[in-house]
Amino acid sequence: MNASVSDAVQRVFNFSAGPAVLPLPVLEQIQRDMLALPGVGSSILEISHRSPQFIDIANEAKARITSLLNVPETHDILFLQGGSRLQFSMIPMNLLLEGQPADYVLTGSWGKNAEKEAVKEGKVQVAWDGADCSYNRLPKQSELKLDPNASFVHLTSNETIEGVQFLHEIEAGDVPVVVDCSSDIFCRPLPVERYGLIYACAQKNAGPAGVTMVIIRKDLLQRGDAELPGYLLYRNHAEADSMWNTPPTFAIYVMGLVAKWLQEEIGGLTKMESLNREKSSLLYDVVDNNSDFYVGHAEADSRSLMNVTFRLPNADIEKKFFAAAAELNLTNLKGHRSVGGVRASIYNAMPMAGVRALADFMQQFADDNK
Ligand SMILES: Cc1ncc(COP(=O)(O)O)c(C=O)c1O
Q1: How many domains does the chain have?
Q2: Known catalytic residue at 292
Q3: What is the residue range of 120's domain?
């Protein structure tokens, strides 16, 4: 830890599901730039979104994301607001075609939330629903009931609450695949060219709350009806280079810094993925080696690299687990209120040392409480 930061404040290992931990070098850069951006004389919070200085910052963020994810010329990157929840509505509003329903793959709470909003906009079909297995696994390709005539197929790459994650692509023929990557964008290289639309709110793996990134195939921009309210039409944002209205300038600036950190300090997304695999294995190994004490939620081949979910023998022991963890500065480990249990969110910015500390604690706690 940087001496200036450790002297001033005690940072905990924060396993929050979002808003979540940010890379320390990014926080330090924000701190340095907060009174005045170098050469600008004002902070990022005080300059116009139309100033050449901010346009440079936004362009750099876009350029870094383009090279990190290898975004092809066929796709546009938009910086929007309203969180991923607004995308649950904007996607069907813009992409549903007359007489062609959308297919939704329900792998957990967020997929269900997305579908709940989509049905308000038009005809939706459920291509697979993991309710029967409590959303503890992903579907096999052969289980998906995909309609070759669908307007699009929607899936959630990482279910933040249940802790199941697609680490492979699905096959949907010519139907555009739309994917909610809110809690795993930048966790691995993504073949962007295979997707019609990728969206991610920033506050888990890419920056602070306030900006939602949408990467959309350019031909799909033509689908939206011009009569839609202006903000809700992707085309308006694409034509105005995400300046149709005042964009979330601070959040875009931080997202750019996170992308820079991934490129320059981590060494890109292939490296990030191998670190994420190493980090998540540390925790899953403790769960597997103590299966008489910890019960993992997700089946082994569906496990998330980002959100590790498991239960202890009963609620009292879980309470004791959270209290003992907090004493060691391991915080925000409670599972989502809808499912309970433990959830350790180990996004890109969670250092290996934090995961090691949690794995050691889990082993010790199991030894002491079995
Ligand atoms: C996978 C996923 N999708 C969507 C959302 C909703 O994002 P927002 O709160 O930015 O609307 C979340 C937030 O937790 C999420 O984890």
Answers
A1: 2
A2: no
A3: 28-265
For residues 214 and 280, membership in a common domain is answered with no
Among the three residues 223, 239, 265, which one is the final residue of a domain in this structure?
A: 265
CATH (domain of 59): 3.40.640.10
Instruction: Output the CA 369–ligand 1 centroid distance in Å.
Output: 35
Q: Given 204, 260, 279, 334, which residue is catalytic? A: 204
Report the alpha-carbon distance of residue 139 to residue 348 in Å, rounded.
Answer: 26
Residue 113 lies in a domain: yes
List all residues 6 or more positions away from 264 whose beta carbon is below 8 Å from its beta carbon: none
The number of the ligand 1 atom at minimal distance from the alpha carbon of 88 is: 4
Both 242 and 107 in one domain: the answer is yes
Yes or no: say if 115 and 124 are a contact pair by the CB < 8 Å rule: yes
Catalytic member of 62, 76, 110, 112: 110
Same domain, 36 and 78: yes
Cβ partners under 8 Å of residue 203, min gap 6: 18, 19, 20, 209, 210
The string of pLDDT tens digits covering residues 21-65 is: 999 999 999 999 999 999 999 999 999 999 999 999 999 999 999
- Give tens-digit pLDDT for 286-327: 999 999 999 999 999 999 999 999 999 999 999 999 999 999
Q: Give the number of C-alpha atoms closer than 13 A to the C-alpha of residue 44, restricted to the C-beta side.
A: 21
Closest ligand 1 atom to the C-alpha of 201? 10
Instruction: Assess whether 204 carries a catalytic annotation.
Output: yes
pLDDT reading at 3 higher than 50: no
Which residue bears the tokens 């910015």?
Answer: 349
Does residue 182 have its Cβ closer than 6 Å to ligand 1?
yes
Per residue in 122-155, pLDDT tens?
Answer: 999 999 999 999 999 999 999 999 999 999 999 9
Geometric angle at alpha carbon 16, from 14 and 206, rounded to 5°: 95
pLDDT, one tens digit per residue, over 85-116 is 999 999 999 999 999 999 999 999 999 999 99
Q: Is 368 marked active-site?
A: no
Has residue 10 been placed in a domain? no
Which CATH number is 283's domain given?
Answer: 3.90.1150.10
